[in-house]
């Protein structure tokens, strides 16, 4: 695991506020040389401290999307391969390993109900997935 120093944390904080900020802009904000920022960004992405740069939609844009939580049971020792397959799916927003009846809890997000149906089928067809339950999220309360 990579050790983050204060500069790394400040860089990540700046990117959290604006993931589209240019290296030059970030260098100016942090009062660092452009090359220093570029090298740190490269290291943070190569070591997966930063996994991806993404867009966070506003309330109006996300209201029409389909959101759900899916719990899956994994057969035998297939957890690692199932996890790997799920990480490749863009509809998987979050993935948690758990204990108890369900081995993994997946937060899903799709654009349409037909996309939602398709992703559920794709997940159920992953080798090692033995059972599932899905809870569509109707509205956010808090």
How would you describe what is shown here?
The structure is a single chain. The chain has 142 residues and is an alpha+beta fold. The chain is built from 6 helices and 4 strands. The chain is 42% helix and 22% strand. The model has no long low-confidence stretch (mean pLDDT 89). The protein has helices at 6-17, 23-30, 34-46, 59-63, 79-87, 113-124; strands at residues 66-74, 92-97, 104-110, 129-137.
Main sheet makeup: 4 strands, antiparallel
Intertermini distance: 34 Å
Averaged pLDDT: 89
Q: Please trace the helix and strand order, writing H or E for each element.
A: HHHHEHEEHE
Query: If strands are numbered along the chain, what order do they take across the biggest sheet?
Result: 2-3-1-4
Number of strands: 4
Q: Work out the helicity level.
A: 40-55%
CATH class membership of the largest domain: Alpha Beta
CA-atom Rg in angstroms: 19 Å
Strand content: 15-25%
**CATH fold node name of the largest domain:** Alpha-Beta Plaits
Structural class: alpha+beta
Number of helices, counting only DSSP H or I runs of 4 residues or more: 6
**Net shape:** elongated
CATH superfamily of the largest domain: Lrp/AsnC effector binding domain/regulation of amino acid metabolism (RAM) domain
Number of structurally distinct domains:
2
């Amino acid at each position: 695991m990579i050790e983050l120093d204060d500069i790394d944390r400040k860089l990540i904080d700046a990117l959290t506020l604006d993931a589209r900020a240019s290296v030059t802009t970030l260098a100016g904000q942090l009062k660092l040389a452009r090359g220093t920022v570029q090298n740190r960004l490269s290291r943070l992405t190569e070591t997966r401290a930063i996994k991806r740069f993404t867009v966070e939609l506003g309330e109006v844009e996300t209201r029409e999307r389909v959101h759900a939580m899916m719990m899956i049971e994994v057969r035998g020792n297939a957890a690692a391969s199932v996890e790997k397959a799920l990480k490749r799916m863009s509809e998987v927003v979050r993935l948690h390993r758990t204990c108890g009846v369900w081995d993994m809890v997946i937060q899903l997000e799709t654009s349409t109900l037909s996309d939602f149906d398709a992703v559920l089928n794709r997940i159920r067809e992953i080798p090692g997935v033995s059972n599932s339950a899905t809870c569509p999220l109707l509205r956010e309360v808090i």
